[in-house]
Amino acid sequence: MKKKKIVGTTIYHVLVxxxxxxxxxxxxxxxxxxxxxSATILPTATQLIPSEWTLSNYFTGWxxxxxxxxxxxxxxxxxxxxxxxxxxxxxxxxxxxxxKRLKFGLNRFLFILVLATMMLPPQILMIPQYMWFRHLNWVxxxxxxxxxxxxxxxxxxxxxxxxxxxxxxxxxxxxxxxDGCSYFAIFFRVILPLITPAxxxxxxxxxxxxxxxxxxALLYVTKADMRPISLALKLFNDPSAGSDIGxxxxxxxxxxxxxxxxxxxxxxxxxxxxxxxxxxx
Amino acid sequence: MKKKKTFKQFLGQESTAGxxxxxxxxxxxxxxMLVPMILSLxxxxxxxxxxxxxxxxxxxxxxxxxxxxxxxKAMGVTCYYALIGTPLKVVFALIIALILVRNTKLTxxxxxxxxLPSIIGGSVAIAILWRRMFEPTGTINAVLSIVxxxxxxxxxxxxxxxxxxLIILTVWQFGSSMLIxxxxxxxxxxxxxxxxxxxxxxxxxxFWKVTLPLLTPTIFFNLVQQTINSFLAFTQSKLITDGxxxxxxxxxxxxxxxxxxxxxxxxxxxxxxxxxxxxLIVISLVTALLxxxxxxxxxxx
Lengths: 281, 301
What we know:
The complex is a heterodimer of chains A (281) and B (301). Helices cover 70% and strands 0% of the residues of chain A. Chain A has 15 helices and no strands. In chain A, helix 4 packs across helix 7, helix 10 (196-212) packs antiparallel against helix 14 (257-265) and helix 10 crosses helix 15 (267-277). The model of chain A has no long low-confidence stretch (mean pLDDT 85). With 301 residues, chain B is mostly helical. Chain B has a single domain (60-297), classed as MetI-like fold (Orthogonal Bundle). Chain B contains 14 helices and two strands, in the order H-H-E-E-H-H-H-H-H-H-H-H-H-H-H-H. Chain B has helices at 2-12, 14-43, 60-66, 69-100, 107-120, 124-134, 139-147, 162-172, 175-187, 190-198, 203-231, 235-240, 252-260, 269-297, and strands spanning 46-47, 55-56. Chain B has a two-stranded antiparallel sheet with strand order 1-2. In chain B, helix 4 packs parallel to helix 8 and helix 4 (69-100) packs across helix 9 (175-187).
């Protein structure tokens, strides 16, 4: 009986491990291929580990195209993703506090609006927003990719933080109030420190989504020096850029490094965030 | 001095604080959602090429859309993708969740490996990789030809199979649905299973009579979310196939984009606005349909 169980467990692990390998195989293929001499990547496509290791793809790729290196593109992406994430966090936390804890006339109405915006996909707003930003003369600037996020436009994050505030005992607010704290002091001294886990989860998702955002870059970036990594990679891969497969795979690998590092370090926050809110990935 | 104090009192009121704290959303909603939506509703009744002033033409855009064969093609492609991709993705997510619910020392590692594709799947890097992998000389054909020697140089980007390259890509990203299933599975109480065993149920019966009914709310949730996502797929089809060949992967959002920002010729913003409004109505209808079906098969405690 015991022997049978060991055999069963072994088979289980072998099969699950095989599945896991198939799942990450495309990524492994990309990473390992980026260290092969460019000309050998396709002929040795079935061989995962390079027989000859080289960093030359990274050097060629980093030079970029049309006079801009990948340093520019990475810097742009970091700038956009960091600022828009900061805006999302602070504005969503404000709104979540108001909707969850404060009584005022429009509270219920605004909450329903937040839920409605969660259902309204950004792709639907693509054309309307483009025309509006054109009126505002924002096309060709970073504004459309950063400023809206300072106004809690992603209802999903408001909802996530609201749920979290719901778990904080109300007695804490009341005790602070008796001590003479204003609502602003309660928010900054009591609520904000306690919702750190929700803010971390939100920051991770926001950063990764903004980093990957290709549609906004496609619509609003008109100058070469403002390209974020998503748009730059796409152009770099075009045959007209004269790209070679090795350099493209090397830069693609670099572009997923931030998301992968965040994933490895904050796996628990990510998993908890998804489990508690049913986020899309 | 007295005036200042009353202002302070006003600030100290709970309702004042409520409005101040929700101000970002109020401004954001007006500025970045309501105004653009109203603008686009107006433009959807106009002929508008961005360069010259919009010209009111009534329902003409909507009438033209109805007779536009590319519109119907895009609608068909999107429905095909949603109707095949979504169930496949949810079924995969459920099966893997059932396998990974068993707690072993290696489980966190497995969970990470199956979830990782969801985290990075939306990036341009993955789109580029997918295109390269499915090229006739790419790694997919190379690996397949080891198992099936006849398959060399199969053209994945042909008319019938190109959509499948995109379906495989979306199914590959079943990780977040899987995590939602995993947390739901952990909430099913052990006593229910024990009671089922007392009643003489085997594992097969336990799954059909206990696990599956209790998971239906989660299945419903995942189906709604993934269906909406499939209807809105843009980046990956734009980057991997650009709607080709012969519009066989022309997703609806991509069609809207191409009307608004054509590679050649004049922009048709009015027409694109009308297309976007139709999409919003279709998505609302599909969501309503799913919610209507809810009472038929979702188990409520």
